[in-house]
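Troubleshooting: if your tokenizer reports a length mismatch, compare your output against this known-good record of 115 residues.
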Amino acid sequence: MAGGEFTSKDFRTWHATVLAAVGLAVSAGAASESARRRAIARVCREVADYLGNTPAVARASYIDPRVINRYQEGKTIAPALGGLGKEREFGDLATAGHAERAVLRLLSAGPAARK
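Known-good structure output:
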């Protein structure tokens, strides 16, 4: 149970944010600014494909901008990736549970509000 009043867009936004955080975490070693921009563009395309939207809509309306801002600061959920899928029951998404908690920690780590 979610325990509150949530819309389907809230769930889509949360899942898009978690997917983006995982995608950016695997690109954490991008050394140059242009490599980081390419990684962000790739992740936005991947999330957009999942949602059935365009990358611009995915980035503007579904991916929490703090995930991208933190990535640009060199902060990701990469340390948590080793635990993905370990809590899964058959049929559960690998991004549930462990990854979601890592994203919550990433988002609550302080201000990263620039867009």
